[in-house]
Amino acid sequence: xxxxxxxxxxxxxxxxxxxxxxxxxxxxxxxxxGTINNDLRQLNKVIRNLISQGGELxxxxxxxxCGYGIYQHLIGNGIDCVVVAPSKIPQQSGNRLKNxxxxxxxxxxxxxxxxxxxxxxxxxxxxxxxxLMRARIDATRALRVAKQQLSAFLLxxxxxxxxxxxxxxTYFNWLPTVAMPHPAQRIVLQEYIDTVTDTxxxxxxxxxxxxxxxxxxxxxxxxxxxxSMRGISLIVAxxxxxxxxxxxxxxxxxxxxxxxxxxxxxxxxxAKVKKGPITKTGNRHVRNALVEAAHAYRFAAxxxxxxxxxxxxxxxxxxxxxxxxxxxxxxxxxHMIAKGKQVNVTKTAIARxxxxxxWAIAQELAQTSPINA
Length: 373
Description:
Layout: E1 5-12, E2 16-23, E3 30-37, H1 40-52, E4 56-62, H2 69-76, E5 80-84, H3 100-113, H4 124-156, H5 169-174, H6 183-216, H7 220-226, H8 234-244, H9 253-259, E6 264-266, E7 275-278, H10 284-294, H11 305-310, H12 316-338, H13 343-368
């Protein structure tokens, strides 16, 4: 006897979960179960009720700000669940009605039809490292804003630093010597200085924690191996490992490039072929980190002392991949600039090829140490 399958669509919000059930054995019947509070205990009651009715449960909900708590809870209890990408959900062009019930109904129907694209759900350990990486990104953005505010305040009062380089030790020693005519302005200046220095210390603390957590992570070997490449320091390597997890889940480097949105967009019809800017889909944190790393390939290829130190105790094959990447990408960078390509276009192209070499390193590492791939 064929086992009944219940496709359960969840529209998850901060305070509520709307539930729709699409049965495979009722001629396509779709029924509204109801709305519950966003509480795992209430969700467990729903699960027990559905199990008592018989059939296999298959849950689905959209990725969003509520995270993966429901997914981890369901998987931990042996219940099938997928989290889907909102951008990949088919939409009817003429549909102008949207509410929680309709959203969950759409999820249940499309999940039954197999037309949804599941996202990769990170392990709790990867998610913790990812949160640490994103906290550092927030801190660096706050630091940039704080520096802009201090610079704007000084410029507004015609105070110009006599040195050459800002934000150095000499610059911070000069700031307390700046005299403001009014006591209120002296207070404002000190507050801006304190904000910058406090934010710098915050970035430094998070960077140190990233270093420590990377050493304890199950992705430790991958992070070390990626740092064998030019431009990929601890922060970039940890970002790749935390955001993408197991790189070997991508069958080809081209699929990884497409996942990161580094391939050109296309709008072709018939004999007309039109390529556009990169798609910018997928994970923007890794994409931005790789574009920044690509800037290091503007110089001639060589193994600096820092790179040699990072390559110590690494397998010979990984070092060979790293050197091959450096020789090719440095030459390609100079060649594209010589042809008149814009710097940003060149860095994007280098980042796209850099993805292929990181994928190759992960594949090689998987063959020698599958646990740390």
